[in-house]
Structure formats: C-alpha cells, structure tokens
Amino acid sequence: MIDLYYWPTPNGHKITLFLEEAGIPYTIKPVAIGKGEQFKPDFLAISPNNRMPAIVDTAPADGGAPISVFESGAILLYLADRYKKFIPQDLRGRVACTEWVMWQMGGLGPMCGQNHHFTQYAPEKIEYAINRYVNETNRLYGVLNKRLDGRAFICGDDYTIADMMSYPWIVPHERQSQKLEDFPNLKRWFDSIWARPATKVAYEKGKAINQGIPVMTEEAKKVLFGQTAGVVKG
C-alpha cells in the first residue's frame, strides 16, 4: 500500500497519474498547503523540504521497514522501478527517460512555477520578471514540441513517467500565456494524455480533495511565499 501525501497541484497530479495508470492501491493523505500543513513536524520527517508530494511505501519490496520518498521525480523513479512500469527497461531507453524527468524537474516545473508567481500572485506586476518567465516557458514548450516530432510520447511509442512529469505543468497553459495551437506536436500529445481514463480519474480525485477550499487567498500567500529557514528548525 502506498500512502500519498498530496495536494492537487501539478506536482501532486504527477503521482496520482502514475498510481491510477498502474492500478496500485493507495491512500491519499491530504496536505493543505495553503493552511501550512506541510510545515508540521510529522510531515517534515517524511519530506524534509516541506513540500508535497511525498509517499510512504508501507510494504516495500525488500520486506523491510516502510520507505518514505520525497520530491516528485524521485517518487516516480521509485514507483517505476518498484512496479516495473512506465519506464524503459533497456539501457538507452532508461537514460532518455531519466533525462526528460530531470528536464522537467530542473526546467519546465521551476520556470512555469515562476511564471505563475509573477503573473498571478506577486503583489507587484514586474514587467521584466513576467517577460522573463513567460518567454522561458515558451522556449521550453518549443523544446518539448520538437522532441515530440514523430513521437507519440516523450520517449517514443510508450507512455512513461517522463510524460507524467510534464503533462500537469502544461495543463495551466492559458495561465502561462501560452497557446497550444502554436505547438502542434505538443497539442497532439497533450490531447492524447487527457483522453486517457486514468488521467480523468486522477484529476477528479484532485477536485474532490480541494472541494470548497479557495485556490489562493491572501492568507495562503503569506503561508506559501517568503518562508525562511525558520520553518525547518528543530
């Protein structure tokens, strides 16, 4: 059984996409990030960066004590290896898949996140910052669009964790000031993933978890932005 510490953000959706596709039993442990639940000591023991998602595999393959994993890329690599699903088993395929997992972790996710921050949440509209991150988001969309030329998915014919990593960060493309019509290969890929039954189930579960809770209040902004080392002391 997998315990998933989760909130319906792009990084959270990555993990439910995998678990639903793989048909693995799991229990969602909601972490209401706007309320600061990610800073509680018991969660810090699982996720030392105070970020969700995180998982606990209560019955790992080695038969030992439960294993906790934080960081969405590490979680998907762990699950893919644990269940031998959604990652190529040949050397070259695995290298390519890992490259695109890291590309998302180091590029697409952080740049889109800054895009969201400066276009949606920053108290001041800083033109330089907005242009910087909107343009970099556009460049990264172009990188992915080129990669998908002649490929059904990022690593070829098979749907993998590389796709699960990137898809949730493309979902809010309109908020990122991007038009999928400008990226035909990306749009085809995006539409094909949304058509998968497991994708729809994963996103519906996210809506159910977040039901009735405002997306971003002023109080939530205070919790989410501007934290210092003080939150991890002790």
From TrEMBL:
Top-level lineage group: Bacteria
A Pfam family annotated for this UniProt entry: GST_C
Residues of the signal peptide: none
Record-linked Gene3D superfamilies: 1.20.1050.10, Glutaredoxin (3.40.30.10)
Domain named GST N-terminal: residues: 1-87
All residue ranges annotated as the GST C-terminal domain in the record: 90-224
SUPFAM superfamilies per the UniProt record, alphabetical: GST C-terminal domain-like, Thioredoxin-like
InterPro entries: Glutathione-S-Trfase_C-like, Glutathione-S-Trfase_C_sf, Glutathione_S-Trfase, Glutathione_S-Trfase_N, GST_C, Thioredoxin-like_sf
Record-stated family: Belongs to the GST superfamily.
PANTHER family attached to this UniProt entry: DISULFIDE-BOND OXIDOREDUCTASE YFCG, GLUTATHIONE S-TRANSFERASE-RELATED
The name this protein goes by in its record: Thiol:disulfide oxidoreductase
Species per Swiss-Prot/TrEMBL record: Ferrovibrio terrae
